[in-house]
Amino acid sequence: MINRLGSCRCGQVKYEVRGAPKRVGICHCKDCRTESGSAFTFFAIWALREFSTTGEAVLHGGRRFCPKCGSRMFSYDEAEAEIKLGTLADAPTPYRPTYELWVKRREPWLAPIEGAEQHWEDRHVRRVDGEATE
User: Fold this and answer.
1) Nearest-angstrom CA–CA distance, 28 and 88
2) What is the tally of structural domains in the chain?
3) Is 118 a residue whose pLDDT tops 70?
């Protein structure tokens, strides 16, 4: 089993994920764009039992960040942990997105990721032949 480590920029908050992620994606929604300060967020989902963290992470809007340096790192609920893959210690990551969310907000100069599912909005709304479907 492969363990991967990550941390905030200053190192006060650290985490570990064990094994392979359940899924890997990119999100172009307004929240992810605003929260990341970029055109999209690159993330992966692990089962919560495969995630552990140390240090003090502050919760705001469902997402956790370091109160010292402000790094946005992860969120979790009772079942899953979502990790911002740019916070992993090793770059580049071995992970490739298998889906894209909120592609209706994707910058026009960004091409769709080849082979990745394209979801018009969240994972339950896909765009097929120019039409949004449930």
Assistant:
1) 20
2) 1
3) yes
3-state SS class at 32: helix
Q: Is the confidence at residue 124, as pLDDT, over 80? A: no
DSSP 64-108: EE-TTT--EEEEE-SSEEEEEGGGBSSSS-S---SEEE-GGGS-T
Task: List the beta bridge partners of residue 111.
Answer: none
Torsion of CA 66, 53, 22, 32, to 10 degrees: -10
For 39-83, the pLDDT digits (tens) are: 999 999 999 999 999 999 999 988 999 999 999 999 999 999 999
- Tell me how crowded residue 24 is: count the other CB atoms within 10 A of its CB: 20
Which CA distances in Å does 51 have to 6, 20, 127? 11, 11, 32
Range of the domain at 90: 3-133
What is the domain-level CATH number for residue 66? 3.90.1590.10
